[in-house]
């Protein structure tokens, strides 16, 4: 059998004024053909799962194009049509195919398309026709539309947060698409959207109530005839009609049974809706907790500047508060190309005076004056050998500098926003986070897979920013109503 694999993987924060444009994708965000094999075949990503399963099953898999940028605002119409147009032209020209494996996020938004993932899947379906099985693995933060599910034969979803099961889900998807292509199964899918948003601080699947809900999904997936069952958390920072939680079930041939299974999962989610909400603690309270800990590191999760949710990664809110109170030594990253450039130009061992961070209109905090010594400079490239959040292996934060401030803090200043999901981000530039009393990690779930191993304590901090915990800070114009907890909502149990 011969499968194609392709995808546009983007999580769009529609509250960000920065767009995912052609320049951004063109700056290392697009790989084609054998480049995809080189970058992803041995990784713990969904694509890594596709390639691994294909090798095991003797399937010829032909990579076409894969596009990815760190979460930011909506994709521009120009970039979307450029990338998807090329994908589809190649898919058409190189066919026919026995199956197609898509790598989509599920929370992509384009300027002209609120359901960008559904649009991609629908266009792919038009190219290959109704009989070729098309599968996709979505991120757990997907805002799933009926249009997307109807265009796919198999819709799987990560079931861990932090997302460390991407490769396994890719293997599962390949297996099911191959079985469908051989006529061994007839996948029938059911989607049940819930009028519900889960708070970002309640999305760790190792903690309740998500742990119980994921266990329930595994139980339902084991029912007779079931092929898969997924709870989907959704992404609340994409203001689109399909935003919110959902459940997907796939049965071998029986639409009624698939619907019963998806509804059973959805009922269990709805019963726990109040437990899926959260209130965070302030920066002052978080620093108080950190200072009282006799031993570090205490990891402060800067929710409002969550790079993995589309924030710019340059908030100075915690840094300024730590300076104001004379907190113990901390280390954190900052995305600040201008400051990184000044440090690199000055060179290692040089003293510099900078105003760091908060360089965008949507940044939290204000630029902070710092005086310090440039410890190291780097090209910003690093590798993560283990299965970290999303399974990504290669990272590039652009020209990077390590600055030791006069107050004893360390800032790793990069030129590109990169999720704090790998210890190698710091270790690769000679910074050992385990030696600091406080580590500021820009995110809430993605850093846990990295910093959980060294943290004495992890504290979720309700900071300002475009990924803030308190969703009442945002003005939504396109979401469904009613939607709990914004409004009282009813759901048939």
Automatic annotation (TrEMBL):
Protein name per the record: Microcystinase C
Chain ranges of the Microcystin LR degradation protein MlrC C-terminal domain: 300-478
Coiled coil stretches, renumbered: none
UniProt source species: Amycolatopsis deserti
Start and end residues of each Microcystin LR degradation protein MlrC N-terminal domain: 2-290
């Amino acid at each position: 059998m011969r499968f194609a694999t392709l995808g546009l993987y983007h999580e769009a924060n529609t509250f960000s004024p920065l767009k995912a444009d052609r320049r951004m994708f063109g700056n290392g965000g697009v790989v084609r053909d054998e480049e995809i094999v080189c970058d992803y075949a041995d990784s713990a990503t969904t694509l890594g799962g596709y390639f691994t399963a294909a090798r095991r099953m003797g399937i010829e898999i032909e990579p076409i194009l894969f596009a990815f940028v760190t979460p930011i605002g909506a994709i521009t119409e120009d970039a979307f049509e450029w990338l998807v147009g090329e994908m589809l032209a190649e898919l058409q020209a190189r066919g026919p195919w026995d199956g197609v494996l898509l790598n989509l996020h599920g929370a992509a938004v384009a300027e002209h398309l609120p359901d960008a993932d559904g649009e991609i899947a629908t266009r792919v379906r038009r190219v290959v026709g109704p009989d070729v099985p098309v599968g996709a693995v979505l991120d757990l933060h997907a805002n799933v539309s009926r249009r997307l599910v109807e265009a796919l034969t198999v819709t799987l979803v990560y079931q861990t947060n932090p997302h460390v099961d991407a490769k396994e889900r890719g293997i599962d998807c390949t297996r099911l698409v191959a079985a469908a292509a051989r006529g061994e199964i007839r996948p029938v899918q059911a989607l049940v959207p819930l009028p519900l948003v889960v708070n970002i601080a309640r999305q760790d699947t190792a903690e309740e109530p998500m742990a119980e809900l994921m266990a329930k999904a595994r139980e339902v997936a084991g029912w007779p005839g079931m092929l898969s069952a997924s709870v989907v958390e959704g992404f609340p920072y994409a203001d689109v009609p399909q935003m919110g939680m959902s459940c997907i079930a796939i049965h071998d041939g029986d639409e009624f049974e698939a619907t019963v299974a998806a509804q059973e999962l959805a009922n269990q989610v709805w019963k726990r809706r109040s437990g899926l909400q959260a209130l965070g603690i302030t920066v002052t309270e978080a620093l108080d907790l950190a200072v009282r800990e006799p031993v570090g590191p205490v990891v402060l999760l800067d929710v409002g500047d969550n790079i993995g949710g589309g924030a710019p990664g340059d908030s100075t809110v915690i840094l300024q508060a730590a300076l104001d109170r004379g907190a113990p030594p901390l280390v954190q990253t900052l995305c600040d190309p201008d400051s990184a450039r000044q440090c690199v130009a000055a060179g290692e061992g040089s003293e510099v005076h900078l105003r760091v961070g908060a360089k965008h209109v949507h940044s939290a905090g204000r630029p902070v004056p710092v005086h310090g010594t440039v410890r190291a400079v780097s090209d910003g490239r690093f590798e993560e050998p283990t299965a970290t959040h999303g399974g990504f292996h290669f990272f590039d934060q652009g020209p990077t500098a390590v600055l030791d401030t006069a107050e004893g803090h360390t800032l790793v200043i990069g030129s590109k926003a990169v999720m704090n999901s790998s210890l190698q981000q710091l270790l690769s530039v000679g910074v050992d986070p385990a030696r600091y009393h406080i580590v500021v990690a820009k995110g809430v779930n993605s850093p846990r897979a990295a910093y959980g191993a060294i943290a004495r304590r992890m504290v979720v901090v309700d900071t300002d920013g475009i990924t803030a915990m308190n969703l009442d800070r945002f003005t939504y114009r396109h979401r469904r109503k009613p939607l709990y907890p914004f409004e009282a909502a009813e759901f048939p149990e």
